[in-house]
Design goal:
Distance between the termini: 31 Å
Helix content: over 70%
Order of helices and strands: HHHHHHHHHHHHHHHHHHH
Number of helices: 19
Number of domains: 1
Largest sheet: none
Strand content: under 5%
Number of strands: 0
């Protein structure tokens, strides 16, 4: 017997605002990589020495890098936990339901990698999502402890290296034949088939970062999102945000002091050349960045509930309601801007230009999302995902609108 789609009596607008904000931040970071891949990024960045470009780089480092992926992950974990808990309350939760849901998401992510961009994360979310659902009945204390442990565990690189050695997998071999110049030529002047091959090789070469760095952060945030979902924090957000105000502000201040010291002082010290000290500094910086991302969520929620800036933040909810569609659309737009199928602007945009491009594209996405949601219940990919999950063709048009 097929499940009926879960009905949401009323959307929680601030959660959609959070998702929209996360989509903006992710694109600001991703477009930097779309403009110059990891293979040549350091060399490419050396040419941008003007004050405005240095300021733009500092803005990216201070306010964007490593902050929005945790936000997006937390919100995804919260979203699937809210749905799972709803089904659990109604005694209709089945593993097959979420297996099908995550499988569809995995396929979307795999196609994203092949067709558009190698930096996809939704296929990773699909894999980790199933594990997160298995923790539904775990106690709150264990969930919090697991979230912290997953975030602070220091030996992911060593474990991954051991596993790769065990299966004789050498990621660095996949792009060893490529240089920054050959990648530049393939993206700007090569065929689409050549770019597909390059994306697949880039993905394989970047698996240490994907599974050794991003996956632990994502899983930690998933578990934290599950904890928040189990305790229905979303139903009492104003009270919760007010309750944690003092500790959140103090922690944010302290970690920001460290972030500034790291970016402008610690990396210039002689001791930074010592591997174990450098590794420790970097790990602390990552944790500080994640805390900054969580602080963004608190700040937006506080502004939403206690100030007149709610009207200014409100348009973000349109992009947030179509987060999956907008995420994939950003990669399509990036393909059109940078590759041979479009503008061929790969490795031509300055840090300021990439930042401004991301903001302009996102503003257009907010506008288009609002128009789409005037006539339809869900974004296009959200609808496909939903239909596959429930194994039926669900209505997408809002009542009152005819084709």
């Amino acid at each position: 017997m097929n499940k009926k789609p879960t009905q949401v009596k009323k959307r929680i607008d601030v959660l959609d605002v959070y998702r929209g904000f996360a989509i903006l931040g992710i694109f600001v970071v991703n477009i930097v990589i779309m403009n110059s891949t990891f293979l040549n990024q350091d060399e490419f960045a050396k040419q941008w020495t003007s004050t405005i470009d240095q300021v733009s780089n500092s803005i990216l480092q201070l306010f964007f890098y490593t902050k929005f992926f945790p936000i997006f992950s937390l919100l995804f974990g919260l979203g699937i936990s809210m749905q799972a808990l709803k089904l659990l309350e109604n005694n209709t939760l089945r593993f097959s339901f979420f297996a099908r849901r995550m499988f569809c998401l995995f396929i979307i992510g795999a196609l994203h990698i092949i067709l558009l961009w190698s930096g996809d994360v939704v296929h990773l979310y699909a894999i980790l999502g199933l594990f997160t659902i298995s923790l539904l009945r775990v106690s709150n204390k264990i969930l919090l402890g697991l979230a912290v442990l997953l975030l602070l565990f220091p030996f992911y690189d060593q474990l991954l290296a051991f596993f790769f050695e065990l299966i004789q997998f050498k990621p660095e071999n996949y792009i060893q034949e490529y240089t920054g110049e050959t990648v530049n030529q393939i993206i700007k002047n090569g065929t689409y088939v050549q770019s597909v091959r390059l994306r697949l090789l880039e993905y394989l070469a970047n698996t240490p970062m994907l599974f050794g760095f991003l996956a632990p952060i994502a899983l930690s945030m998933f578990v934290l999102g599950l904890y928040l979902g189990k305790n229905k924090i979303y139903e009492k957000l104003p009270t919760f945000l007010a309750k944690i105000k003092k500790p959140v502000v103090w922690i944010a201040l302290l970690t920001n002091v460290y972030r500034i010291l790291f970016l402008f002082v610690l990396t210039k010290l002689d001791c930074y050349k010592i591997e174990w000290i450098r590794t420790g500094f970097i790990k602390l910086m990552v944790i500080a960045d994640i805390i900054m991302g969580l602080f963004y969520l608190w700040l937006i929620g506080w502004l939403w509930y206690t100030t007149s800036l709610k009207k200014l933040l409100s348009p973000l909810r349109y992009a947030g309601r179509m987060a999956l569609t907008n995420y994939i659309m950003q990669s399509f737009i990036g393909l059109l801007i940078f590759s041979s199928v479009g503008g061929r602007l790969y490795e031509t945009l300055s840090p300021l230009e990439t930042l401004l491009t991301a903001v302009v594209v996102f503003v257009v996405q907010v506008f288009l999302s609002k128009i789409w949601l005037t006539y339809f219940k869900y974004g296009p990919l959200e609808w496909v995902w939903r239909c596959f999950t429930y194994k039926k063709l669900l209505p997408i048009k809002k009542q009152g609108y005819k084709q």
